[in-house]
Amino acid sequence: MTAVDLLEGVHVAVDDRGIATVTFAHPQSNCLPGEVLSSLASEITTLGGRPDVKVLVLKSAGNRAFCAGASFDELIAISDEAEGLKFFSGFAGVINALRTIPQLVIGRVQGKAVGGGVGVASAVDFCMATQHAAVKLSELAVGIGPFVVGPAVERKMGRSAMSTLAIDATAWKSASWACNHGLYAEVFDNVEAMDAAVDALAGRLAKSNPEAMAELKRTFWSGTEHWGELLLERAQVSGRLVLSDFTRKAILGFKS
Description:
This protein is an alpha/beta fold. It is built from eleven helices and eight strands. It has helices at residues 34-48, 72-77, 81-100, 116-123, 150-157, 159-167, 175-180, 191-206, 210-220, 227-241, 245-255, and strands spanning 9-14, 19-25, 55-60, 104-109, 113-114, 126-130, 135-136, 186-188.
């Protein structure tokens, strides 16, 4: 796979150990436009149905930002509530795909995560990061709110930490802060150390009993069975708010 291939989209590789690596990419700091969200949910769901896949690793391209969240270009182009619902349902689709597949998912966060990127990191089962992986829920700053990703963030970090991120929407919280509040299992000094740890854990899990891991995952996610409906309801809220004059002006301000 060349650097050109990784400019935009979702790429999947499965090695002979049964470890599937799912990589999403976008030239704008690995933001998540609707097409990438749809592809990401579809690929994760497909891998979930493959008996030869024992564990997933979810990552983004490059060694800088992990994910800049929603695509501002697509947000500003939304013209009605139906389009808004469709766009924000993309984040719901990714979270629910990660939640419902039987395999455990390891997250690899090499750099900053914003908005929906924090939601993706929260929806994996075990997440590792570098010291550069600061987090921010910036939605309120542009007049929306982390409604779709909120349940995943709250489940992983607790309501207090989630509300801190959601309310102080322009402030970065360090990777150490995110680790102390449960988002990251471990923070490493550099990408090389993180990748070695991700590969070692994935290798151990690939040799574990798939039935036991599937049962563990069901236990971990117990109580989220209603998220299929809940996240779509939240997407509808975001899809309505994104049409407000306040939000449109705020997004244009961020873009400029």
